[in-house]
Specification:
With 334 residues, this protein is of the alpha/beta class. It is 34% helix and 25% strand. The protein has three domains: 2-132, Rossmann fold, CATH 3.40.50; 143-204, Udp-n-acetylmuramoylalanyl-d-glutamate--2,6- Diaminopimelate Ligase, Chain: A, domain 1 (3-Layer(aba) Sandwich); 207-327, CobE/GbiG C-terminal domain (Nucleotidyltransferase, domain 5). Helix 2 crosses helix 3 and helix 8 (219-233) packs across helix 9. The protein is globular and about 60 Å long. The two termini are 27 Å apart.
C-alpha cells in the first residue's frame, strides 16, 4: 500500500518525519511526504502541494493509495468528500492530529484496511488509535473483515449491514461452506453458487494470473495488459485470487503497483518449485537460460492456483510481457 501523508504546519511536518523514522527502523514502507502550508522553507524530503488540498486529494484518491492527513479532521473530511463512492473500493483515509496524540481512521476501515493502518501508525508514533466502527469497539464479528482476510468476494453487499446488526446484538451468526450445504436459512454462505436461503453470499476468488516480464516494464503498460486480458477472458478483477510470478520478478515496480491498486497479493515462487508444477507448458529456451525455468507465467499461475488447478488460458505475449490464467479447483477456506 502506497502511503501519502500531507501536513499543513511545521508541527505536522515533524509528525511525518517521526513516522518515517519509525518506519525505517521497523522495515515498514515510509510515507511520501507532502506539505500544504505557507512556510517559505520546505521541510527536507517534502513535496509542496501547489493546489488546494481538495484538488490534491482528488488526484491521489486512487485504489492502492492510503491518504494520511496530519491536521484537523474537518480539513480531511472536506478534502475527500467529493471522492467518496463505495465502502468496498474507496481508499483508506487516516487523520493524525497536529501533536501526534491520536490516529483516526476516517474511511475504508474494514475493506481497505484503514483500521489496521491506524493501529500500526499509532504504534509507530506512540499515539492512541481512535477506532469508531461499531463491530470493532464492541469486539463483534465483522463480516467484511472476514471476507477481506479470507480473499472472498462479497456478492450482495446489502447483507453486510444485516449481519453486522445481528453481531452487535450478540446473536449467533451461522456460516455454511460449500461442502456442507445448509438445510435451513443461514446468515453467511461461502460458495461459488448455492440454492440455500442466506443473508450474505461470499464467493471464493477463482482465478490466478501468472505474469512474467522484462525488467523495468512500465506500470501503465502492465496494468493495461492485465486488464485487457481479463476482459477478453470474461473474468472480473474481483475474482482474481493472486498474481503469480517467479521470485526474481517479485520486486518489479509494475507488479507492486498492480498489487496495490487492485488489492491482489503477489505470490512468488523460485525456479525449483516452478519446475515441479504439473501440466503441459509452452517451453522457452531463452527463459530457462535466463531464470532457470522454461515458462514463468503458466507454471506460476498453476502453482498459485493449488491442487487440481486448470490452466484456462495458455501463455500470451506482448512487448516483453507474458500472461496466463489458471482456475482454482480446491478453494475451500475452512
Amino acid at each position: 500500500m502506497r502511503k501519502l501523508a500531507v501536513c499543513f504546519t511545521n508541527n505536522g511536518a515533524r509528525i511525518i518525519e517521526k513516522l518515517n523514522r519509525a518506519c525505517e527502523k521497523t522495515g515498514v514502507r515510509s510515507a511520501e511526504a507532502f506539505y500544504c502550508g505557507t512556510a517559505s522553507d520546505l521541510p527536507e524530503g517534502f513535496v509542496r502541494v501547489e493546489t488546494p488540498v481538495g484538488e490534491w486529494a482528488g488526484c491521489v484518491f486512487l485504489p492502492g493509495n492510503a491518504l494520511i492527513f496530519v491536521g484537523a479532521l474537518g480539513i480531511a473530511v472536506r478534502a475527500i468528500s467529493p471522492c467518496v463512492q463505495d465502502k468496498l473500493t474507496d481508499c483508506p483515509v487516516v487523520v493524525i492530529d497536529d501533536n501526534g496524540q491520536f490516529v483516526i481512521p476516517v474511511l475504508s476501515g474494514h475493506a481497505g484496511g484503514g483500521n489496521k493502518l491506524a493501529v500500526m501508525l499509532a504504534e509507530l508514533l506512540g499515539a492512541v488509535p481512535v477506532i469508531t466502527t461499531s463491530t470493532d469497539v464492541n469486539d463483534a464479528f465483522s463480516v467484511d473483515v472476514f471476507a477481506a482476510e479470507n480473499r472472498l468476494s462479497i456478492r450482495n453487499r446489502e447483507g453486510i449491514k444485516r449481519i453486522s446488526v445481528k453481531a452487535l446484538e450478540e446473536k449467533k451468526i451461522t456460516l455454511s461452506v460449500k461442502d456442507y450445504p445448509p438445510k435451513e436459512p443461514v446468515d453467511v454462505v461461502v460458495a461459488d453458487e448455492t440454492d440455500a436461503e442466506f443473508t450474505l453470499l461470499l464467493t471464493p476468488k477463482k482465478y490466478t494470473v501468472g505474469m512474467g516480464m522484462k525488467r523495468g516494464k512500465d506500470a501503465g503498460a502492465v496494468e493495461a495488459y492485465f486488464c485487457e486480458t481479463l476482459e477478453k477472458a470474461g473474468i472480473l478483477i474481483s475474482d482474481i485470487y493472486a498474481i503469480c510470478t517467479i521470485d526474481v520478478k517479485e520486486d518489479e515496480p509494475a507488479l507492486k503497483a498492480l498489487r496495490d491498486r487492485y488489492r491482489i497479493p503477489v505470490l512468488a515462487f523460485d525456479a525449483a518449485l516452478l519446475n515441479k508444477a504439473q501440466g503441459d507448458f509452452e517451453a522457452s529456451d531463452f527463459v530457462i537460460q535466463t531464470v532457470g525455468v522454461d515458462n514463468v507465467c503458466e507454471r506460476a499461475a498453476v502453482m498459485g492456483a493449488g491442487n487440481c488447478a486448470e490452466l484456462i488460458q495458455k501463455k500470451q505475449s506482448r512487448d516483453g510481457m507474458t500472461i496466463a490464467i489458471a482456475k482454482r479447483r480446491d478453494h475451500t477456506i475452512l
